[in-house]
């Protein structure tokens, strides 16, 4: 958020800036007190003032960050200071989804209208850079409510203009932190040993010369790109090594974090495209204590679990002896059991993943069948409407022709062809009766087909609801 002092901030002394920081602390405390249902002592956030005098707040809780993304959730004044909240461009990846391979003729407005029919908390929607193939592209949608985000994700897709578009969770690709001094990864400016600020374009000292028009040449590989460009072979290698380490040690990731593995960073034959943290926000404290050494499960030692000594009046004594071989065998068996348990859990997780994929496919198939049935019924109804209009018209034409024939017969009763005219009138009359019978039969068939299509639609809807309830 930006306060009203940002214009004068650059002309302030250090003492004035310190007092401003103290005043900003009062603003933060008052903002914390305005949180409904949050305890200020249990969720200590971080704030600082940037070079423009803006107050920057860093929320540790994702739900709090999403809540503060809405400018309507801010008061107009805090600590007698008028504030101007600045809306972030994106929500965290946990609140983002991807619509894959959306045809280019489907506009963002069409997608937004379809999504607004299902949810009411759409935050942002945009086309992903580099995903347009000329025929289709990927669309990233951001939703403020985690419940509605999970609801859309469980459906597996959206139906837009007779197309079922695949909907998946958004996995953020891993970004590297570069040193702002030497433009290398693996450390920050505070721990950099370089004696000068290097230019990202040429790698030379930025304090000498004009570096807005210098030659672009990476100081590592000497190729024509910036030092922080992800196409640099050194950065690709570092990024690949970092992802391999995270795959082997996923506990290093923050809780509830999923990372997307780019194709250039995967091994040959490796179909896994994501890294998932195995810890959640519920057990993060115990997990951190475990890896920080505060909770250590020591191996069993018989000497630390010795039996109490018997009274002196007892004549029998028991000699405690340790059998190292026996304990080693027990330890080996325990390790094997843990391995089997881990394999069993992995197989269960694979079964769950296959089950979820099959559920999504079946739901997509049922949606397609329902859509096809709907359009088929519309076509049949259209044909019936045409026939219903055509048959009465033909019947009226035959009736008119019958009247004309009767009038003609009365005028020519004395002629010899009166019998032939009478037969023609009888044939027309029988045709009119037959057409009325066919028209009644057509109306009856239309009603029965309509009832049958309604029953089929209800059965498909019950099947989809049954799949959703079983999946939940």
Write the SSE topology.
Blueprint: E1 2-3, H1 14-33, E2 46-49, E3 55-58, H2 62-68, E4 77-78, E5 81-84, E6 96-103, H3 108-116, E7 122-127, E8 136-143, H4 146-155, E9 157-160, E10 163-169, H5 233-248, E11 258-260, E12 274-276, H6 284-291, H7 324-411, H8 418-471
Antiparallel strand pairs: 1-5, 2-3, 4-5, 6-8, 6-10, 7-8, 9-10, 11-12
Q: Which ranges are low-confidence, i.e. pLDDT below 50, for 5 or more consecutive residues?
A: 1-20, 36-44, 291-307, 312-321
Share in helix: 40-55%
Element string (H = helix, E = strand)? EHEEHEEEHEEHEEHEEHHH
Largest sheet: 5 strands, antiparallel
What is the β-strand count? 12
Q: Tally the helices: what do you get?
A: 8
Mean pLDDT score? 75
Query: Strand order within the widest sheet?
Result: 7-8-6-10-9
Which word captures the global form?
Answer: elongated
What structural class do you assign from the helix and strand content?
Answer: alpha+beta
The fraction of residues in strands falls at: 5-15%
Q: Termini separation (Å)? A: 40 Å
Instruction: Please give the radius of gyration in angstroms.
Output: 38 Å
How would you sum up this structure, described in words?
The two termini are 40 Å apart. The protein has 472 residues and is α+β, with helices and mostly antiparallel strands. Among the domains are: 2-84; 93-169, RRM (RNA recognition motif) domain (Alpha-Beta Plaits); 360-471. It is built from 8 helices and 12 strands. The strands form 4 sheets. Strands 7-8-6-10-9 form a 5-stranded antiparallel β-sheet. It has a 3-stranded antiparallel β-sheet with strand order 1-5-4. It has a two-stranded antiparallel ribbon with strand order 2-3. The protein has helices spanning 14-33, 62-68, 108-116, 146-155, 233-248, 284-291, 324-411, 418-471; strands at residues 2-3, 46-49, 55-58, 77-78, 81-84, 96-103, 122-127, 136-143, 157-160, 163-169, 258-260, 274-276. β7 and β8 form a beta hairpin. Helices cover 45% and strands 12% of the residues.
């Amino acid at each position: 958020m930006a306060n009203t002092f940002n214009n004068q901030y650059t002309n302030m002394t250090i003492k004035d800036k310190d007092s401003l920081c103290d005043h900003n602390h009062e603003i933060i405390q008052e903002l914390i007190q305005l949180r409904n249902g949050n305890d200020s002592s249990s969720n200590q956030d971080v704030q600082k003032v940037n070079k423009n005098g803006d107050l920057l707040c860093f929320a540790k809780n994702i739900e709090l960050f999403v809540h503060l993304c809405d400018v309507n959730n801010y008061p107009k004044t805090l600590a007698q200071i008028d504030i101007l909240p600045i809306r972030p461009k994106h929500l965290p990846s946990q609140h983002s989804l991807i619509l894959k391979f959306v045809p280019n003729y489907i506009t963002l407005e069409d997608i937004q209208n379809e999504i607004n029919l299902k949810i009411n908390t759409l935050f942002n929607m945009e086309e992903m850079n580099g995903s347009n193939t000329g025929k289709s592209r990927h669309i990233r949608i951001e939703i403020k409510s985690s419940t509605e985000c999970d609801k859309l994700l469980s459906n597996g897709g959206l139906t837009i203009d007779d197309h079922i578009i695949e909907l998946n969770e958004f996995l953020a690709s891993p970004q590297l932190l570069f040193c702002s001094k030497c433009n290398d990864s693996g450390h920050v400016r505070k721990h950099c040993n370089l004696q000068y600020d290097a230019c990202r374009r040429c790698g030379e000292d930025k304090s000498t010369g004009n570096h807005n028009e210098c030659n672009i040449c990476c100081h590592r590989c000497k190729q024509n790109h910036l030092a922080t460009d992800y196409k640099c072979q050194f950065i690709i290698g570092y990024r690949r090594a970092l992802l391999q380490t995270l795959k082997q040690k996923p506990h290093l990731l923050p809780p509830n974090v999923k990372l997307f593995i780019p194709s250039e960073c995967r091994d040959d034959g490796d179909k896994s495209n994501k890294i998932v943290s195995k810890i959640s926000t519920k057990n993060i404290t115990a997990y951190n204590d475990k890896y920080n050494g505060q909770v250590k499960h020591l191996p069993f030692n018989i000497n630390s679990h010795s039996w109490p000594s018997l009274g002196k009046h007892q004549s029998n004594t028991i000699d405690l002896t340790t059998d190292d071989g026996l304990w080693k065998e027990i330890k080996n068996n325990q390790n094997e059991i843990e391995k089997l348990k881990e394999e069993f859990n992995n197989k269960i997780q694979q079964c769950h993943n296959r089950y979820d994929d099959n559920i999504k496919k079946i739901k997509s198939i049922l949606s397609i069948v329902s859509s096809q049935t709907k359009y088929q019924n519309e076509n049949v109804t259209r044909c019936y409407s045409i026939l219903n209009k055509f048959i009465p018209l033909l019947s009226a034409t035959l009736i008119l022709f019958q009247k004309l024939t009767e009038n003609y017969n009365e005028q020519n009763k004395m002629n010899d062809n009166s019998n032939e005219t009478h037969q023609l009138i009888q044939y027309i009359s029988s045709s009119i009766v037959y057409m009325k019978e066919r028209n009644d039969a057509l109306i009856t068939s239309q009603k029965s087909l309509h009832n049958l299509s309604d029953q089929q639609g209800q059965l498909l809807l019950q099947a989809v609801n049954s799949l959703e309830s079983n999946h939940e």
